[in-house]
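ARCHIVE CARD
CATEGORY: sequence design from structure
SOURCE FIELD: tokenized fold
FIELD CONTENT:
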């Protein structure tokens, strides 16, 4: 089954709890609150490598959307390079597997 990420993001924004941006994601990972990190296709590779090295147990999934498209998918008026899911609500986002190489 292929997950419609755009649709699932909209559901998660309405029913779950997500943090937007690199700093909030780093903080949530450090606190142990992060269940899933979604990364835009154009998220800086050094940020991804650093986050993955510090928090290898957190599932990180890079989507094929650039940051502006990710912002639109979340119904936000700004670009989003990183989303931290702390509660997926009624969405199926937590079914995503990590696709970041160690």
């Amino acid at each position: 089954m292929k997950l419609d990420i755009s649709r699932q993001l909209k559901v998660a924004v309405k029913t779950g709890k997500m943090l937007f941006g690199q700093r909030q994601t780093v903080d949530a990972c450090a606190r142990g609150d992060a269940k899933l990190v979604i990364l835009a296709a154009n998220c800086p590779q050094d940020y991804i490598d650093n986050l993955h090295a510090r928090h290898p147990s957190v599932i990180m999934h890079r989507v094929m959307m650039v940051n502006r498209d990710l912002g639109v998918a979340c119904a936000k008026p700004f670009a989003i390079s990183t989303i931290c899911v702390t509660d997926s609500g009624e969405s199926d986002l937590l079914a995503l597997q990590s696709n970041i190489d160690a």
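CARD ANNOTATION: The chain has one domain: 16-91. The domain at 16-91 is CATH 3.30.1330.30 (60s Ribosomal Protein L30; Chain: A;).
SHELF: design records, drawer C
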